[in-house]
Each structure stands twice: as structure tokens, then as C-alpha cells.
Design a protein that fits this description.
383 residues, mainly beta, five-stranded antiparallel β-sheet, 38% strand, globular
Length: 383
């Protein structure tokens, strides 16, 4: 009996050290992160840090905004590097100039023109936080909420959040659940699930900023990017769709075969779409034979480290953002500033401003329906 009790105690203690999910008697570190720096209170709710590990991949997630804080992946020599930009504490996230780092985005990702849409004959007004438009759910969107932790173990965490009727101007009580899982194939799976009691637009995504050389390792312009898309959503100067998807052929937006991200930025003063986005900040319509099928959306290879990331999704589109608005005003968890074009985002999504663009796939979730989608970020070494 004593041996059984001792074994149980040792297993429990080992799990505590690994997960960093509970406040320890002595400060523990997860990579270069300290769990105690994430054990705080925001809007009366407790925040914490959770570490997942499987295969060669380790990732740290906080329930403040459901954010990916860190993701360690090996390079071609087997040396782990942190490929996700993030901060070292909850206070740093609260004080950051760029508010979307690594966060879950909702109720509606991307922009809604002038913060207005009409649903079932009722016009809804949303807060403007990207003048003159509404962006990523508004200033108190899902990125600025403390999510409840339904369950957590060494390979997965399930987060939930109830977005109440009227929050950020949206109708309906929206119940959301997101599960992060690391599997043995070095894949990070993100499963999204939502239900509502009133019709409402929903478009969820994650806003991790990546640099496959490592957070503090400089420009992303030599990364080789492939995007499985023949069409681009053309936008105006405020990044609202003009209403049509245009061919990428013969433009700087043709990533159908791998090319360096920075190769065609030489045209950023003459190509109107690059001018509008201050570089790349655009939606790509993914090539799919059937709506909702899981397909390869994008592949990124960093030649120096050899790291490769593939993005798979059931979503119809992908926003590629090239770090154009990073200005060095934020300092990351390794003490280096986040500078211009030193990170990129690949956000799986529906198309921007969909509630005002009837020709785009719809994003209205009705009572009795289930919003359910999955995206995968897979890490490997380029052979």
C-alpha cells in the first residue's frame, strides 16, 4: 500500500513540474518562461501558463486570449528554436502595442466595413478599432478575454468562453470551445466549436506571428512561401474587399510555387494591392474541390535552419500578413524588439467583411447549428 501511495505522489509531482499548470512552491521555468509570470488576474479571472509537449514540439499557451506564447521546434541540426513571437508575462501582453500576438480571434476575424452589418433586417453597429473599420472582434474581442480551462494535460488543452448577447455589438450568446493538441507527428491541431441562441456572424482564427529562424533572428523575407490559391481578394486602401476575387497570375501575389517572401516587394510602390496593404496583408481564396475539406493551404521553408511549416485547414481562405506594421515598439520574451517584417501570420479563415459581401461564403451561425472547423500547423525539416 505504501508503494502505491508513493507512486501516485511521484506521478502527480512529475505532472505538476511538466505542465506548469498550477502555482508551484518554487518558481518553475518552461523554456525561458516562468509560470509565475502568467499567474495573474485580468477582469477578475485567473490567468495561467500551460505547456504541451509531444514528439519534437513544445508549446506554451496562456488562457489570457487563448494565446500561443511559445512554440519550440528543432532545426536541421536538432537544435530547438522558438518560432512564435510572444511575451514573457501577462503584464507584457496587457501593455503590448500589438494586441493580437498568438491570440484566438473572434467573434469575427478580419475586418467588417465601418463596423456595420445587417442581419434579419436589423442593423448592428460594432466598435471601430481599425479606423474606419471593425477588426478581429473589436477592442474587447476574444483576444482580450480570459478563457476558462475545461481540461489540460501534457498534449492538449481545451479552452471555453461564453460571449454574451451584445458583447462588442454582436447578437446572441455564443458558446465557444477551442482545443489545442500536439500529436506525435509534430502537428499543432486547433479545433474550433461554437453554438449560439441567436443568429450571429462567426469567423474564428488564431493570430500567431511566426519566424522559422526564431523569434529574435531577423527578417522573414528570405523564407520560401507557397500558398495553394489561384485567387486573391482585392481590397481598398482600408483593406476592405472591393467585392471580387482576382487571379494571382502575373502579380506579386502568385505564391503557387515557392518563392522568397521578399522577392516581389520591389513592386510595393507600383502595385496597388501592395500599396493598399503596405506590403502583404491579404486574403487568399484556397483551391478546394469541395467546401469544408481539409487541404494544404500554405508551406513555409526557412533555408538557414531548414525548418518547414505546413498549414492545413478546412476553412476556405487564408490571410497572409507580412509583419508590415511591426515597428520595434514591443519587446519579446528574449529581450529583442519586434521589428518591421520580422514575422508573418497565416490566419485560416472565411473571407473578410463577409456579412456585407453576399457573394462570399456565408459566416452566419444559426440556433441549432454547430460551427466546427479545424486547422493544423505541421513542423518538419526540409529534405
Amino acid at each position: 500500500m505504501k508503494r502505491i501511495k508513493l507512486s501516485i505522489l511521484l506521478i502527480s509531482f512529475s505532472f505538476l513540474i511538466f505542465s506548469c499548470n498550477q502555482k508551484p512552491a518554487e518558481p518553475l521555468t518552461c523554456g525561458n518562461l516562468k509560470a509565475e509570470d502568467f499567474q495573474s488576474t485580468v477582469d477578475g479571472k485567473a490567468t495561467n501558463l500551460y505547456v504541451l509537449q509531444n514528439g519534437d514540439i513544445t508549446t506554451a499557451i496562456t488562457n489570457y486570449g487563448g494565446r500561443i506564447v511559445s512554440l519550440l521546434a528543432p532545426d536541421k541540426n536538432g537544435t530547438p528554436g522558438d518560432v512564435v513571437l510572444g511575451f514573457k508575462s501577462i503584464d507584457d501582453y496587457l501593455n503590448a502595442n500589438e494586441v493580437f500576438h498568438g491570440a484566438l480571434i473572434g467573434r469575427v476575424g478580419n475586418r467588417i466595413a465601418k463596423g456595420k452589418f445587417t442581419l434579419d433586417g436589423v442593423e448592428y453597429t460594432l466598435p471601430i478599432n481599425n479606423d474606419p473599420n471593425h477588426l478581429h472582434g473589436g477592442p474587447k474581442g476574444f483576444h482580450n478575454q480570459v478563457w476558462d480551462v475545461k481540461s489540460a494535460n501534457d498534449t492538449s488543452i481545451v479552452l471555453s468562453y461564453l460571449s454574451k448577447d451584445g458583447e462588442m455589438g454582436y447578437p446572441g450568446n455564443l458558446s465557444v470551445e477551442v482545443k489545442y493538441t500536439l500529436n506525435s507527428k509534430n502537428e499543432l491541431l486547433i479545433n474550433y466549436l461554437a453554438t449560439t441562441d441567436k443568429s450571429t456572424p462567426v469567423n474564428l482564427t488564431n493570430h500567431a506571428f511566426f519566424n522559422l529562424r526564431g523569434e529574435e533572428k531577423g527578417s522573414i523575407n528570405e523564407h520560401l512561401l507557397t500558398i495553394n490559391a489561384d485567387l486573391l481578394t482585392a481590397v481598398d486602401s482600408t483593406l476592405i474587399p472591393l467585392g471580387e476575387n482576382v487571379s494571382v497570375e502575373g502579380t506579386p501575389f502568385d505564391f503557387r510555387t515557392a518563392k522568397a517572401i521578399g522577392k516581389d516587394l520591389v513592386y510595393e510602390k507600383e502595385n496597388q494591392q501592395l500599396i493598399n496593404g503596405l506590403g502583404y496583408d491579404h486574403n487568399f481564396v484556397l483551391n478546394k474541390e469541395k467546401a469544408g475539406e481539409m487541404t494544404l493551404a500554405a508551406t513555409v521553408v526557412e533555408p538557414v535552419s531548414g525548418r518547414k511549416m505546413e498549414v492545413f485547414t478546412e476553412e476556405p481562405a487564408l490571410q497572409f500578413y507580412g509583419g508590415n506594421f511591426m515597428d520595434g515598439s514591443d519587446t519579446g520574451k528574449y529581450g529583442e524588439t519586434f521589428d518591421f517584417r520580422e514575422s508573418f501570420a497565416l490566419e485560416t479563415q472565411h473571407l473578410p467583411d463577409s456579412p456585407n459581401q453576399p457573394q462570399f461564403p456565408g459566416i452566419i451561425l444559426n440556433p441549432g447549428q454547430e460551427y466546427k472547423t479545424m486547422s493544423i500547423y505541421k513542423f518538419s525539416i526540409q529534405k
